[in-house]
Amino acid sequence: MEANEIQTLETLAKNLTLLATNGTVTATEAKIKSMQVEKDIKVIKNQYDDIINDLIAERAEAIRIAQVYKTEVERYVISDSDIEHLHKTVELVLDIIKEMSPDTDIEMYQQLKNLISVDVLKAIQLLGFNYKEAIGEPLTQLCADAILGKSKNIKQRTKK
């Protein structure tokens, strides 16, 4: 995890802690008890509206924090079906690259394909493996190199 991601999670944890220790229940009970001596219905209504708005705002903040945590976890976790789909897709991409650029050394990428299995990826994810960075970036570069190489060959042939 990068430093800015860690800082984001720390900020979220602080916000969640503040939200949890805010004492919403105690504060709400205290506000309601203090309203019992109030006789003006408009004042009571406004105080109830304030309590409800505070509770809604706190709920919204808790949901926002939970969604950010969920998004952060999903960046590093991949489902079994996604891994299987990924394996098939990588296999297809490697075959396409072989056809596009037969002189490209695909052997290393074939070994990479063997790493993409449910058991292997699940195990290394538990250790903090970032599959998008480790697999996605080299695969992206391989595809880009193959496409650029092919386009250079085409340009050279058209110049002749």
From the structure above, extract its key features.
160 residues, mainly alpha, 7 helices
Number of strand segments: 0
Number of helices: 7
Give the SSE string. HHHHHHH
Q: Fraction of residues in helices? A: over 70%
The parts where pLDDT drops under 50 for at least 5 residues are: none
The class by helix and strand makeup works out as: mainly alpha
Question: What report would you give on this structure?
Answer:
The chain is elongated. It folds into 2 domains: 3-74; 80-159. It has 160 residues and is mainly α. Helix 1 packs antiparallel against helix 3 (41-74), helix 2 packs antiparallel against helix 3 (41-74) and helix 4 packs antiparallel against helix 5 (107-115). The chain is built from 7 helices and no strands. The mean pLDDT is 79. It has helices at residues 3-21, 24-35, 41-74, 80-100, 107-115, 118-126, 131-159.
List the helices and strands and how they pair.
Blueprint: H1 3-21, H2 24-35, H3 41-74, H4 80-100, H5 107-115, H6 118-126, H7 131-159
In short:
The protein has helices at residues 3-21, 24-35, 41-74, 80-100, 107-115, 118-126, 131-159. It is an all-alpha fold and 160 residues long. The model has no long low-confidence stretch (mean pLDDT 79).
